[in-house]
Fold:
Amino acid sequence: MLFDNIHGQESAIDTLRHALASDRLGHAYLFTGPAGVGKKRAALALAQVLLCEDKPHAGCGVCSGCVSVAARTHPDLIVVMPAAGKRDVTIDQVRELQRVLGLRSVRGGKKVVVLDDAHLLNPAAQSALLKILEEPPGDALLLLLTVNSATLSRPLLSRCQQVRFAALPFPVVEELLVQEHGKDPATAHALALYSRGSIGRAVALDPQVFTEERQYAVKEFQQLRGAPFTALTHLAEWLVADRVKKSAASDQPNEGRASGERLEIMLSWYEEVLRYLLLGQAGVVRYQDCLPAVAEAAAGLDVPDALRQLTLVYDTIQALGRNANRQLAVEDLLIQLAARAR
Structure:
């Protein structure tokens, strides 16, 4: 079955397999879990299973139905996400979805809706979507994908069956990077360390760019103590800026952007400082090559201090996920960290 290509999510996939096998598939599901762990891949696999022309309820992967789902061109597959340049899913998009769901399916089967980044539904859009879920069209399946269900209303959540996707085990990420993405073992190991269980995050990291960013970040984190506000503002701008897929060592820019938050580098740094205090040098995983810098950062701190620093970074990342002002939120974070470092 097409679900066999989704690795490390046995519990979530078993839930979907059981619903299909017992012919008790719901009308709406909420796939929750970190970004890049297989939620969208699972949603498209389920769409292929339902829209397959040769093996209904199993999926063949090669018929025109399966191929067009994979290419996202199937007329009965509707993918909803924030419009280009927008930060949320709007009520107009949901109203258009409602209009389309009111029409007959083009090929006479089900319609499958994949609503990516459901946590970006604004309040008005959530209310409009709730009306669809309260009276779902009989031929439609709605799949909502989110990294954070806390932004969704309780009535909306209550009308979806939740399927949880976990962070992938480190060996799974490392293996996928080698087998599916052609990374050499050493690069795969290094990227997997910073993936946080997300193959999507690992693939998005350009190794050369990431190495340069990491070196720059460590230098800046070491200088937080007593740093003037102008330096903190400059660092904040760098932390929230888009990653351009071009290393300083190359004059050839690559097309597109390498996604991922530079704040993840900061989160990893403060995790390592805490691990150093708890476990010593052997506890440091991602910054073994920077042990003197980690030791210096840990000097004068106790475990509660290090935990508070880590919590500040984590809370800021969470706030950005709720559409906080990126520059102001990170500036405030750096000011607090600089004050605690003194």
Remarks:
- Residues 2-164 form a domain with the Rossmann fold fold (CATH 3.40.50.300).
